[in-house]
Amino acid sequence: MSNRRDFIKGMAAGTVAGFFATKGVTSSLFRSALVPAKNRQETDIGELKGITVKCISETSWFDNNTQMADFKKAGGSLVTQYDVEFSRSGVPNSYDGTNAGGYSTLIEFEFLDGSRKKILLDTGWNVDWMTHRFKEEGVDKMLENGEIEYLVVSHDHYDHFWGIEAVLQYNPDIKIMIPDSFMENSYKLLAGGSFPKPPISNSVPHTGQLVKHDLKKVYPLFPGVAAVTFDCPCGRGVRGEQVLVCNIKDKGITTISGCCHMGIITLMEYTKANFKGGDKIYGVYGGLHVSPYDNWNPQNDDLVLSINNYNVQKLGCNHCTGYITAEKMIAAGVPVVKGSGKNLTKRDIYLGNGDVLVF
């Protein structure tokens, strides 16, 4: 037992936090050890009027067992994503039988002067599926017409980044913001690379500006909007995830994440400690990476109960937030916003493909 205590004490706090977040067992029991004490140098990012979030695709995979079998066949939990041969056929209730879906969200910000700007968070995975979804929601025309200011890639996991061709085919010159911890192969894919094993390729090289965000830093984007990049392990060789933090006038802070590998409690505690107005958290949207394969761990019960300590008014979860997690949160009184269950979304218990949430 003493060896275990010495081991944990010797590890960096961020590494421990990332480990538990990646495993889906983030707990408020670890909060005091993992999150720095509140400092007084809070970042003032200003305010905006509101946010409209449209889920373009939340489906990271259509069948959990198929996904896990792919990893096992490739060599287990430590294999990197570019070394996995993912199933692309034979999966029922999916798009063309493929097990590759992906996460992508269209975000429109309304500012205090009435002006608006749009960004795209993540690209999804399967290029055919994402092209289908972009056309259904009009994102293809928005990209072609330059209506989308830029693409923010939360992290370079396969289900958030491998659909890059679906974006670039409409606007290869779009400005892209990434964590500077991108894998070497991810840069190659962005430049027009091809990887036969997964298989994944990009026939439209990126020709626009590429902005790299350092880990552990805050980057103001618009009035009331900033990107924060966390230094956390995400698995499959990926490290680092950036999240959007927004301050809505008279409402409070809203966070928008891709997977939230750093952990939802870590994210909210960081927001409280580092942003002006961070003590009032109004909304949460995105993947929360809690029990993504619905293999519930009792430690997550503590996490679910802890969310109510932050007085969140709207919580729009999906993607790597397991269905059991959503059920547990609803039972605990967390204000989870349900969806419609349309466009190949499996259930309506959380926001799915095509659903809209207004903050």
Keyword list:
359 residues, alpha/beta, Metallo-beta-lactamase, Chain A, seven-stranded mixed sheet, six-stranded mixed sheet, 12 helices, globular, disordered N terminus
Task: Report what the structure shows.
The protein has 359 residues and is an alpha/beta fold. The chain has a single domain, classed as Metallo-beta-lactamase, Chain A (4-Layer Sandwich), CATH 3.60.15.10. The strands form 3 sheets. The protein has a 7-stranded mixed beta sheet. The protein has a 6-stranded mixed beta sheet with strand order 9-10-11-12-13-14. A hairpin with a 3-residue loop joins strand 11 and strand 12. The chain is globular, with a radius of gyration of 19 Å. The N and C termini lie far apart (47 Å). The N terminus is likely disordered.
Proportion of residues in extended strands: 15-25%
* SS-based class: alpha/beta
Can you tell me the CATH architecture?
4-Layer Sandwich
Tally of contiguous helical segments: 12
N→C terminal distance: 47 Å
Q: What's the helix-strand series?
A: HHHEHEEHHEHHEHEEEEEEEHEHEHE
Report a brief summary of the structure.
The chain is α/β, with parallel strands linked by helices. The protein has one domain: Ribonuclease Z/Hydroxyacylglutathione hydrolase-like (Metallo-beta-lactamase, Chain A, 4-Layer Sandwich), CATH 3.60.15.
Produce the secondary structure layout.
Layout: H1 2-10, H2 13-23, H3 31-34, E1 50-57, H4 64-74, E2 104-110, E3 116-121, H5 127-137, H6 139-144, E4 148-152, H7 158-161, H8 164-168, E5 175-179, H9 184-190, E6 194-195, E7 200-201, E8 210-213, E9 218-222, E10 225-235, E11 238-248, E12 252-257, H10 264-274, E13 281-287, H11 299-307, E14 314-318, H12 323-331, E15 356-358
Parallel strand pairs: 3-4, 4-5, 5-8, 12-13, 13-14
Antiparallel strand pairs: 1-2, 1-15, 2-3, 6-7, 9-10, 10-11, 11-12
